[in-house]
Hints:
Layout: H1 9-40
Amino acid sequence: MEIQLVAGLSTVCIILFVGGIQLMFLGIIGKYIGKIFTEVKHRPIYIIKE
């Protein structure tokens, strides 16, 4: 009994893998830009209540 693979299966797997890696790096860049945004706002770390 032979196993027959669907034509183009390896191509689809590679495209999905590369797309997943791109999404992961997009998330990392988003976290980095978010931290930069909070630093640029120049808000104090804490506020002393009188």
